[in-house]
Amino acid sequence: MSDDSKKSPQADKSASKSDKSASTPEPSYLTAKRGLMSWLVTIDHKRIGLMYLTATMFFFLVAGLLAITLRTELFTGQQDFMSAATYNKVFTLHGAIMVFLFIIPSVPAAMGNFVLPLMLGAKDVAFPKLNLLSFYIYCIAAVMLILTLVLGSLDTGWTFYTPYSKTTGSAVIMATMGAFVAGFSSILTGINFVVTTHKMRAPGMTWNRMPLMVWALYATALIQVMATPVLAITLFLLVIERTLSIGIFDPAMGGDPVLYQHFFWFYSHPAVYIMILPGFGIISELITVHSRKHIFGYRAIAMSSVAIAVISFVVWGHHMFVSGQSELAGIVFSFLTFVVAVPTAIKVFSWVATLYGGSIRYTTPMWYALVFLWTFTIGGLTGVYLGTLSIDVHLHDTYFVVAHFHYVMVGGTVVAFLGGLFHWWPKMFGRMYNETLGKLSAILVFIGFNATFMTQFFLGHQGMPRRYYAYLPEYEALHQVSTIGSWILAAGLFLVLFTLVQAIKSGERASSNPWNAISLEWQTASPPIEHNFHTTPTVTGSPYDFPEIDKSGKH
Amino acid sequence: MIATFIPPEKLGTPQMSETPWELLPTASNHAASLDGLYVFLTIVCGISFVLVIGAMLYFMVKYKKRSDNDRTSPLTHSGKLEFAWSAIPAVFLMLFFVWGELDFVKLSAPPADAIDIRVTGQKWYWTIEYPGRPVAATVAALDGEVAPLLVVPLNQPVRLLMTSKDVIHSFYIPAFRVKKDVVPGRYASVWFTAIEEGTFPVFCTEYCGDEHSSMLAIVKVVPADQYEEAVRAATTLEQGEGETVEQFGEKVYKSFACNSCHNTDSTAKVGPGFGGVFGKSESFTDGSSGVVDENYIRESIYSPNAKVVSGFTPQMPSFAGQINDDQMNALIAYIKSLK
């Protein structure tokens, strides 16, 4: 692959020139400044992105190991090596760490921080210092959640449902405050991205010329800013109730436990889209770049992200069909849930249609994008079951739900995230990885993931409830397949780690644009210089107008 | 904490289905109508999946990169296609919504002639109360273990009126396809008409703490003419012929799920173990102390929080009005016998 000096509609001549001058020894953002302090007090979005990446990957590892422990305990129907109390603590930490410390910040804060300003042709985010602050707030939240391990009695599940969370040990206060603080980090990142997208676009980058990754990050940022405060209020009320004994959610003091669920899901359902929308953005990039085709239905994909962001605020009650909310509310929420399915379906169809007439390169990122289409389609379709009122009565709080949200969160977000890592890794570190190992990792993840979670749909429709450490013998066979699958999945993920780290240490040098992509992040050196671009690029066209596209009218 | 209330393998219900993809027994009116929708959804979603992934696989092979000179299609959008793939799924989605909604409305409206049965959830067992029967533990004997037993008549609507004494639980009968959260401080109700004889498991499906996994029960469907007799048998907890008072006491101990918090040896669980506890001097959380005698045990069962042994928290619910004098005497005799 050669340095791309072909005319790119996303960068005018001067930007192309700056690309060439990158070969003169202008230091990259990685080498421009040296020493630990230069990282700790950096306001460079790329370095903050990498710090986020390191932190989120660490927590992914921790929560992943917890998951393997849970699956291993579930290998037999009896209690094996963990007591009931330990099992409950482990699944709580698995969920809380995955959600609050990994998935929510992984794509927006880690990957988004790195690519958003580059894709917009900006030197940095709008508020670089706020960006650093949001990272440190995240670190404080992480320390608080980890402290609950030391305090040792958080066993409420990541949802902190009342009144159970009122009766259990004192670590709940620390954990909820941790989630509360993590929320602020999320809000600050959101504000930063919204302003950056509005104000920092390069000349010529109209809204319709923004890469779809930017659209996705923008829609995500809107949800972060609008929904997260509600979580903060809810968790704060929970702490007030516990410490001051003011009855809000606890029926023993005149409160309403179902009110807590309303508050909690009012945030946590939009949060599901905070987790998945950026994944959609990544997939839109990967599929076009590696199939050399203009994205199919740009406008529909961009607008569906915004539509999902808006509708996501009014579907929270579908988590509560059997909780005791009114039947009428259940019916309204079910209807709205079906409405949100439409823009999601449009996206999947558009990605598949993008492949049509392309010239598909089977690179590692493309493998992950194709795995995503498989897993996310299953995740989306099984969501239809759960949105259907009468069916949800049967499937609610069974393994069917566990399987569904893992198909969306892991099969969707995590697979997209891994694809994005392989796609942008050469940009981040200026090194290529071993493609064979990369593809092998995608295959292992695919097999392991499906073995782990496909079985759980069957467990669910057979009635296996979630959050059980011991279960009836008739569920054992499927649980064993699932557990073995989780080990394969873990092997795949360790291979990802190995491949990426090996690339940094001894990978071949990457060119500035190894995929011949058009969006602006590829029009500067790999790794980029500290200020991203020598001269501000000017944009004249779509980020998906590849030179291979046949405009002669023969197609 | 190894002991559980009912070891799941001893629940004693028949396996619900032979193979994973098979549906559960259609044991209630709701199950029958829900399964139709479930199968329909599975067919539609299955076809959609095959279409989407089939197209993907076809394109993957057909449009694999051949050479560096490949030209790709200039297609960027198609109004007609995009309208079609928005509108067609929307029609199916509305169909699912309406069908699900109709069944759900049926599920929320019990018929006027339904038999009312009260269900109370607490960590970690269910109490079942039948109209006109004394409040006694209702138990099914399973190979030496006991589980709460819900007896329902065949082909007759039953409404469960449910509440919780502590945290949120959820009453789930997979074979009936019904589930409802059981929330403290209010009543939740669920109804069904059983249409198949047999015994089926009941699960708690709202996480409620340590022994959530063991909070199981059994529903037993009997012919209508045997219903009253079955209820009487299930709600009768008396010393049987040839049973020693200690043996009867052990049955009481299990029936009221004392074993979910108290071990029969001296090890502590949620509460103190019973082994060798009788006659022992204990100090209490209020600073006083006393000897565990008949009166202390009686008081601890009827007003558990009066004197809590140091090192434990006041968690136990009162059993006043549930355990009668005969049962109490037997229970005390049983505790005395534990060394």
The total of beta strands of chain A comes to 0
- CATH-wise, what's the superfamily of chain A? Cytochrome c oxidase-like, subunit I domain
Q: Largest interface here, residues on each chain?
A: A-B, 103 and 91 residues
CATH class of chain A: Mainly Alpha
What is the helical fraction of chain A, as a range of percent? 55-70%
**Subunit organisation of the chains:** heterodimer
Distance between the termini of chain B: 20 Å
Output the helix-strand order of chain B: HHEEEEEEEEEEHHEEHH
Strand order of the largest sheet of chain B: 3-4-10-9-6-7
Overall residue-averaged pLDDT value of chain B? 88
Report the strand count of chain B. 12
Largest sheet descriptor of chain B: 6 strands, mixed
Helix and strand succession of chain A? HHHHHHHHHHHHHHHH
Percentage of residues in DSSP E strands of chain B: 15-25%
CA radius of gyration of chain A is: 23 Å
Rg of chain B (CA only)? 27 Å
User: Under CATH, the topology of the largest domain in chain B is which?
Assistant: Immunoglobulin-like
- The overall pLDDT average of chain A reads 90
- Percentage of residues in strands of chain A: under 5%
Broad structural category of chain B: alpha+beta
Low-confidence stretches of chain A: 1-6, 13-23
Subcellular location (chain A): Cell membrane; Membrane
Protein name (chain A): Cytochrome c oxidase subunit 1
Keywords (chain A): Cell membrane, Copper, Electron transport, Heme, Iron, Membrane, Metal-binding, Respiratory chain, Translocase, Transmembrane, Transmembrane helix, Transport
GO molecular function, one term (chain A): cytochrome-c oxidase activity
Give the topology, please:
The complex is a heterodimer of chains A (555) and B (339).
Chain A lengths: L12 H9 L14 H5 L4 H29 L10 H37 L7 H24 L12 H4 L3 H29 L12 H33 L12 H35 L6 H14 L15 H29 L8 H24 L1 H7 L3 H31 L5 H27 L14 H31 L49
Helix pairs in contact in A: 3-4, 3-5, 3-16, 4-5, 4-7, 4-8, 4-9, 4-14, 5-7, 7-8, 8-9, 8-10, 9-11, 9-12, 9-14, 10-11, 11-12, 12-14, 12-15, 14-15, 15-16
Chain B lengths: L28 H34 L16 H29 L7 E8 L2 E5 L9 E4 L2 E9 L3 E8 L4 E5 L4 E5 L5 E6 L4 E7 L12 E6 L4 H9 L9 H11 L25 E3 L5 E3 L2 H9 L22 H13 L2
Parallel strand pairs in B: 1-5, 4-10
Antiparallel strand pairs in B: 1-2, 3-4, 5-8, 6-7, 6-9, 9-10, 11-12
